[in-house]
Every structure is written in C-alpha cells, then in structure tokens.
Amino acid sequence: MNKVVLVTGANSGIGLALCERLLSQDTEGLQLCLACRNMGRAQAARSALLTSHPTAQVALLQMDTSSISSVISAAQEIKLRYNRLDYLYLNAGIMPNPQFDLKGFFKGLFSSKIITMFATGEGILTQKDGVTSDGLREIFATNLFGHFLLIRELEPVLCHEGRPSQLIWTSSSNAHRSAFNLEDIQHQRGTQPYSSSKYASDLLSLALNTHYNKQGLYSSVICPGFVMTSLTYGILPSFPAFLWTLLIPLFWLIRIFTNTFTLTPYNGAEALVWLFKQKPESLDPTVKYQSLTSGLGNNYTQARKMDIDLETSKALYEKLLQLESEVRKKLKRKVK
Ligand SMILES: NC(=O)C1=CN([C@@H]2O[C@H](COP(=O)(O)OP(=O)(O)OC[C@H]3O[C@@H](n4cnc5c(N)ncnc54)[C@H](OP(=O)(O)O)[C@@H]3O)[C@@H](O)[C@H]2O)C=CC1
Ligand SMILES: CC(C)CCC[C@@H](C)[C@H]1CC[C@H]2C3=C(CC[C@]12C)[C@@]1(C)CCC(=O)C[C@@H]1CC3
C-alpha cells in the first residue's frame, strides 16, 4: 500500500529538500502532498520534483498555517482526498524581522559560550512579531497553533490502531525554556517569539504522545541545524543572498567545531528522512533528533535530551485546547 505523506511548508528550503529526498528513496511507493501557502511557489516545487521523478505522485494543497479558516478547510480537503495519513511533517515556519545583536555576537565570541552561540543562535537574535486576522500572534499561529489545529482536525485519518502514523515537527536548537512562559504562550510580552514557539512545539510533541500513542499516533521533533534558507537570509537584511555564499568557507571552518552547521537544506533534512525510516514505537518522546554534518561533510542523526517536563507539556496542551475552543466559537459567530 502506498504511504501518504503530507508536508507543510514544502515549497522551499528544508521542506522541499525533504520531499526530494523521500522521492529519491522511494518514488513509486509514496503519495506526497505539499501543503503550501503560496501556490505559485508550490507549483514550481511540484514541477521541480516531477522533473527529477517523472512517475511520482505529487499533489498540492493550499494551506496558510497562520489562518484558522484556511487550516480547517485544508483539513476537510485532506479528509476527502485520503483515507489515512501515514506521515504528517509539521515544517512550515517563520522567523520574521530577526534582529542580529552585533554587541551580543562579539560578547559571545570572546566567552566560554561561543560554541553554544554558534549552535543555537542564543543571545544574538531577537524577533519582531505581528498579529494575524484571527487576533493571534503571527509566529505562534504559524509555527505552532495552526499545526495543532491541523492535527486535531485530522484525527480520523491519523489515528488507526495497528498501523501507526507519525507526526514530525521541525523544531530548532533555538528552542529554549527561558523564552517560554506558560502564562503567555503566544509570547505577547517578550522579544523571542520564535524561540518560544519552537520550545512550545517540543512540549506539545511530548503531550501529543501522552494523548495519542494508545490510538496509534506518535510524535517526534527534529532540529535541522543551521541551514541557509530564506528564513536565515533575513538575519543580515542588508546582506543580499549571494553575499551569504561568500561566508560559506567561514561556515565550513566553523563546522569543524560545531557539527550543527548543516548549511544546505539537503543536509538539514537528514533527521526528517531518518525518522521516516524508524518504527515510531521505538522512538524516545523526550529527545530531539538532530541533523548533524561532520567537518568532512558526512550527514548523521543524533538524539539529544530535551529540557522539557511532562507537567508543563500537559499544562500547555490544556491551554491550547482552551484557545482552540475560543477560536472555534469566534469563527462560528463570524460565519453567522
Ligand atoms: N533554516 C534554519 O537554519 C532552521 C530552520 N528551522 C525550521 O525549519 C522550518 C523550515 O524553514 P526553512 O526551510 O529554513 O525556511 P524557508 O523559509 O525556506 O521555508 C519555510 C516554509 O514555510 C512556509 N510557510 C511560512 N509561513 C507559512 C504559513 N503561514 N502557512 C503555510 N506555510 C508557511 C513557507 O512558505 P511560503 O513560500 O508561503 O513563505 C516555506 O515553504 C521552519 O519551521 C524553521 O523554523 C529550524 C531550525 C533552523
Ligand atoms: C561572521 C558572522 C556574520 C556569522 C554570523 C552567523 C550567524 C548569523 C549564525 C550563527 C548561528 C546561526 C543560527 C541561526 C541563525 C544564524 C546564526 C545566528 C538560527 C537561530 C536560525 C533559526 C533556527 O531555528 C536556529 C538557528 C541556530 C543557529
């Protein structure tokens, strides 16, 4: 039976590289669905995939993870098209208006935290957030809440005893506990909404395992490392994309000290591809699977314990359920 794989944010970067790598492994046995916000870019991605794999089954689906109504109608469409989903890659993500703290960077450069700084970007980045038309914080809605709602909507095609399904989150090494506050899950008050949303996805994955494992649904998180994509090009805004390429020799050098500099979307997708091949029952819900690239350019996946606890994950889950019920009520009122 063909495996059905849905990838959010599949039209560029790590998501597109994942699709390419999955098709290279098994062109005939997969039904790929690219769930994208921008359909122009989605068409281009589909054409590129079909050029290298002409017999592949690649479908497109319009979905904006930051919009409640878009997620709900996309989920309806998925349920019409497929009886079941084997893999749901929750990959779409944004880090808008990142501010690079040059002072923090130089401070970190001459401190014992230099390796951590290059591995996680901690201490040198802040982000500016916006508000969606549903009244939610944009980064929270795009990276976390839209995906949460999607999972909830897709329960009937994801939960099948006897044949497990997998949820796979593209998290980050930039996810850290200090950026997250249970009393402010949307991060309305801080300057690190991206880090907060990624830490929340780590917590949520654990909670999803607690809730759904009995129903045959498993959740894991990965970190792709530092990858040069449109998401990271925004960090040095006055730097055109091609100038980033000039930094590549320096980045290769840094890679000798920190194997988290995976740099290309192909390398960054390593842990996503690795998880595709694992039995979900054998995975550890408390670790993050990390894509790593050695100084010699070899890719591998390593499990690293996450700084999360069951109690906080359950509390976050409850808050997300509560928010879900509020936004559904609002949506009903709007429709009336
Ligand atoms: N690059 C890196 O170093 C790292 C990236 N990550 C994570 O990897 C994931 C992929 O990012 P990456 O490949 O780097 O960056 P890209 O910008 O190349 O890819 C992001 C993808 O998400 C999509 N997307 C953004 N907003 C929405 C939305 N509202 N609805 C639907 N799709 C949306 C984009 O589509 P569109 O064309 O419509 O904008 C695009 O396809 C993200 O979750 C990111 O946080 C994690 C750690 C490091
Ligand atoms: C010579 C300098 C101009 C080099 C600057 C390097 C930094 C721009 C990068 C070092 C570590 C990187 C990193 C990220 C962004 C770019 C760096 C800060 C992320 C925060 C991007 C988004 C993520 O999810 C995690 C990444 C961790 C590492």
UniProtKB/TrEMBL annotation:
Record carries keyword Lipid metabolism: yes
Subcellular location as annotated: Endoplasmic reticulum membrane
Q: What chemistry does it catalyse, as a reaction equation?
A: zymosterone + NADPH + H(+) = zymosterol + NADP(+); 4alpha-methyl-5alpha-cholest-7-en-3beta-ol + NADP(+) = 4alpha-methyl-5alpha-cholest-7-en-3-one + NADPH + H(+); 4alpha-methyl-5alpha-cholest-8-en-3-one + NADPH + H(+) = 4alpha-methyl-5alpha-cholest-8-en-3beta-ol + NADP(+); 5alpha-androstane-3beta,17beta-diol + NADP(+) = 17beta-hydroxy-5alpha-androstan-3-one + NADPH + H(+)
Q: Which UniProt keywords are given for this protein, alphabetically ordered? A: Endoplasmic reticulum, Glycoprotein, Lipid biosynthesis, Lipid metabolism, Membrane, NAD, NADP, Oxidoreductase, Steroid biosynthesis, Transmembrane, Transmembrane helix
Q: Where are the transmembrane segments?
A: 241-258
Q: Name one GO molecular function term.
A: estradiol 17-beta-dehydrogenase [NAD(P)+] activity
> Could you say which EC number(s) this protein's record lists?
1.1.1.210, 1.1.1.270, 1.1.1.62
According to UniProt, this protein's pathway is: Steroid biosynthesis; zymosterol biosynthesis; zymosterol from lanosterol: step 5/6; Steroid biosynthesis; estrogen biosynthesis
Predominant location = endoplasmic reticulum
Q: Which InterPro entries does the record associate with it?
A: 3KSR/17beta-HSD, NAD(P)-bd_dom_sf, SDR_fam
What is the enzyme's main class? oxidoreductase
| GO biological-process terms attached to the record | cholesterol biosynthetic process; estrogen biosynthetic process
Q: How does it sit in the membrane?
A: Single-pass membrane protein
Please tell me one Gene Ontology term that the record gives under cellular component. endoplasmic reticulum membrane
The keyword Transmembrane helix is assigned to this record: yes
Which family does the entry's similarity section mention? Belongs to the short-chain dehydrogenases/reductases (SDR) family. ERG27 subfamily.
Q: How does it assemble?
A: Binds to the short form of prolactin receptor.
Q: What is this protein called?
A: 3-keto-steroid reductase/17-beta-hydroxysteroid dehydrogenase 7
Source organism (scientific name)? Lates calcarifer
Q: Which gene encodes it?
A: HSD17B7
